[in-house]
Amino acid sequence: MESRRASLVAQIDWLTVTLVGVLVLAGWLNIFAVVYAPDMKKEIWDLSLRSGKQMLWIVLACAIVFFILVLDVKIYHTFAYPLYGVTLVLLVAVIIFGREIQGSKSWFDLGFMRFQPAELAKYATALALARYLSEGTKKLTKLTDLLPALLIIFVPALIIKLQNETGSALVFAAFLVVLYKEGLSDYIMLAGVILVALFITTLFLPPNYVYYVTRGLMGLAVLAGVITLWQYFKRQKFSIALHTTVLLSYALVIMLSVNFFVTKVLQPHQKKRIEVFINPDADLKDGGWQVAQSKIAIGSGGLWGKGFLEGTQTKFDFVPDQSTDFIFCTIGEEHGWVGTSLVIVLFATLLLRLITLAERQKSRFSKVYGYCVVAIVLFHFMVNVGMTIGLFPVIGIPLPFFSYGGSALWSFTVLLFSMVKLDMFRRQNLVV
Questions:
Q1: Mean pLDDT over all residues of the chain?
Q2: For the chain, which has fewer Cβ within 10 Å, the N-terminal or C-terminal residue?
Q3: How far apart are CA 28 and CA 308, in angstroms?
Q4: Sign of CA dihedral 124, 428, 16, 2
């Protein structure tokens, strides 16, 4: 028995564990830097401070890790669908019984803490998608195989959007990368890239430019359609004309839908974020304040930073949500370019390691799940860092293992260490 336990412990990927540990520790110290004041007589572990509460969440996260590592490895496959179903129920229940915070009704208030089902939904969706794709021979080029996979991804995303949690809902788009890795058509991915590119381009174009471009696309689409019909009735090859018609029509629909999406779908505060993203200097006293102050904080750090607990932007609360979504600007101010570069290198190393873990799995379930973990962590990292420096709109998602909060820390802990557990049995061709 002792030798078996020692063998299992040896199978743990300690590099991944170490990287996560370093990130969590660095995040905890930076949370303390946000709440610290020179005249404060409280220690970092004081439970009245956010750093103290985060320490409690970290201790409980360690307990979660232990629990995950002692579970039977087959439980992930067995309970993938039941957990997914329970999560959907929780997502609907929080709309009815949840507490509204900053216009989003996505939290259960448990008294001693708040719980956000959207965080659990990412994990449950990863497991459900991995189980679906690992059962039988799925070909994502077939609509009958692709449609269930898309439903698994976008049903929870739609419910989360109904909670006014647009940022959390957008995270589910990361799963499309996993589908592409598993055989999704190049044309579908190309359509997605075109959609995003045209959507962003339309946002930045002046209204009169959009008017002329859409009218031009409409004229070209009609012309291409006429040519297609003429070639069809003349029994000539019309594939090029048909594809041109479809592509132009698709581009036209995207550009025309931007205004509807911004005016009818987004909430007022989300519209403000889009406006700030397009023109960062337009509203520096209100909507643009957060990003502007974040960039000032990061830029003021220079090469080496002002030093731990010496950040002036941090001390005087210039940046809202600095211990949560904007924790990265604390790193920039106090540790400078060197500190932010080190954090980026740590995340890049973790992501590369997770890709290595995913690639060496014999079980397709484990491999698909591994890439789901990579996709989620990468999306959170890129968007969170990007929004603090103005490269992405502010959509309110945490930086993994750094941002303050129990729900986010625990969800990333469960997500990542489930992969570590599956990797412990990588040499066995388990039907998990």
A1: 87
A2: N
A3: 13
A4: positive
Nearest-CA neighbor of 420 among 23, 24, 69, 42? Answer: 69
340-to-119, 127, 153, 231, 258 alpha-carbon distances in Å? 26, 32, 32, 59, 35
Residue type, 207: P
Question: Pick from 93, 87, 152: which is nearest to 121 by CA?
Answer: 87
Is the sign of the CA dihedral 54, 55, 57, 58 positive or negative? positive
Other beta carbons within 10 angstroms of residue 321's beta carbon come to: 17
Local structure of 107: helix, strand or coil = strand
400-421 confidence digits (pLDDT tens): 999 998 889 999 999 999 999 9
pLDDT in tens, 168-177: 899 999 999 9
The model's pLDDT over 327-384, given as tens digits with 9 standing for 90+, comes to 999 999 999 999 999 999 999 999 999 999 999 999 999 999 999 999 999 999 999 9
| CA 16 – CA 37 distance, rounded (Å) | 34
To the nearest 10°, the Cα dihedral for 314, 320, 326, 328? -10
Distance CA 189, CA 397 (A): 24
pLDDT in tens, 84-141: 999 999 999 999 988 887 777 888 887 767 788 999 999 999 999 999 999 878 888 8
- Interhelix angle for 268-278 vs 186-204, to 10°? 80
List C-alpha distances in Å: 371 to 125, 163, 324, 351.
13, 27, 26, 10
What is the DSSP secondary-structure string of 291-304?
Answer: HHHHHHHHHHTTTT
Whole-number Å distance between alpha carbons of 318 and 313: 6
Contact by Cβ (8 Å): 75, 83: no
Give pLDDT, residue 32: 92
Residue type at 416 in one-letter notation: L
φ, ψ of residue 321 to 5 degrees: the values are 60, 35
Residue 193 exposed, middle or buried by CB count within 10 Å (0-12, 13-18, 19+):
exposed
Q: Give the DSSP H or E segment for 108.
A: strand 104-109
For CA atoms 244, 248, 251, 257, the dihedral sign is negative
